[in-house]
Design brief:
This protein is mainly beta. The chain is built from two helices and 22 strands. Helices cover 4% and strands 38% of the residues. It is globular and about 70 Å long. The two termini are 34 Å apart. The N terminus is likely disordered.
């Protein structure tokens, strides 16, 4: 039996209903900073102007930040001490909303510890998250990632980590859990097997347990050149009908759907990251010619050589035995390992 486990016992929920990591008792920021610290590599700084008792925080970008580096929803952010070290705990958060030079976040700390402090917000693929006091930077060729999810499986655990192809972590990359001081954790080595999204990947750690993950929730993972994913493109109905008739748009590919559909409404295709395929929206093409149609699908669980496709139709069983093809964007540039 597969059991899903959320290993972080320190999770707390604000009155906004957003889960944030509880801060250790000794993890608090400095008083309001007299000057801005240096921005960590690949990050932009934001100064906290407003903090509410429910954890809602509003910050404003420091200096003139180019449009391509401006934060967006979901970007990782880190509360800094005035010396530029990462506070950690509840200070590790994500951007909830961004508009112009203003960003909104949730940080589960008292307002008195936040107003006038600075955040480092991840703005690029070459980023290096700020370190806590005494923390160790990963060795050359590796980057630090957090364990986002744990699932108990036979003989070990399956983990999802916070780096993926868009940050240079490809299926086949080596990884290992580390202690708070950056030392390899006992029996914590594993290989990245699947790209869950552009910014998340998964692997299996044999002989590990949820308790061992709680003790060492960070990972050093091998990184290379990031995949350059295609810009999101929504095909028009005319383009989808044309693809069903054989006129495939540039950068897209039509793949056969296997005859064996025992896992329906999901199946695997023989294309992966090395073929330019990343987790994305896709389309199921039904029929050919004047009677052709299409229904939405999505690609996930990508390895180097194959990927999982799941149909998003309201009644997928009606299509289980129908002749189908899947239309995917295969124009990402992903370096092979």
């Amino acid at each position: 039996m597969i059991q899903r486990v959320f290993p972080f016992a320190l999770l707390a929920t604000t009155t906004l209903g957003v889960a944030v990591l509880g801060a250790p008792a000794d993890a608090r920021a400095d008083d309001a900073c007299a000057a801005a610290p240096a921005a960590p590599k690949g990050h932009v700084l934001a100064r906290i102007d407003k903090a509410e008792g429910n954890g809602a925080v509003t910050a404003r970008l420091v200096g003139d930040v180019p449009a391509r580096q401006r934060p967006k929803t979901g970007d990782e952010a880190y509360l800094l001490t005035c010396a530029g070290a990462r506070v950690g705990g509840a200070g590790d958060t994500t951007v909830r909303a961004a508009s112009g030079a203003s960003v909104d976040l949730v940080i589960g700390m008292p307002p008195s510890q936040l107003v006038g402090k600075y955040l480092a917000i991840d703005s690029g693929f070459d980023s290096e998250p700020p370190l806590q006091e005494g923390e160790v930077r990963p060795p050359a060729g590796y980057a630090k990632a957090r364990i986002l999810d744990v699932r108990v499986e036979g003989g070990g655990v399956r983990v999802v980590i916070s780096r993926g192809p868009g940050q240079g972590v490809m299926p086949g990359a080596r990884a290992y859990m580390v202690t708070a001081k950056g030392q390899p954790a006992n029996r914590g080595a594993f290989t990245v097997q699947h790209a869950q999204s552009a910014r998340a990947s998964a692997g299996f750690i044999p002989r590990a347990t949820p308790d061992s993950i709680r003790e060492s929730p960070d990972v050093f993972v091998e990184v290379g050149k990031p995949c350059q994913a295609p810009s999101p493109v929504d095909l028009s109905g005319a383009e989808l009908f044309a693809a069903a008739k054989g006129s495939v748009p540039a950068g897209w590919a039509v793949l056969p759907v296997p005859r064996d559909r025992s896992g329906w409404p999901s199946f695997r295709v023989a294309k992966g990251a090395k073929d330019g395929l990343l987790p994305q929206k896709a389309w199921m093409l039904v029929g050919v010619g004047a009677t052709s149609s299409y229904v939405p699908a999505h690609v996930s669980d990508v390895t180097l050589s194959e990927a999982k496709v799941t149909i998003d139709a309201q009644n997928p069983d009606a299509l289980k035995n129908v002749e189908l093809r899947v239309l995917v964007n295969a124009s990402a540039t992903c370096p092979t390992r």
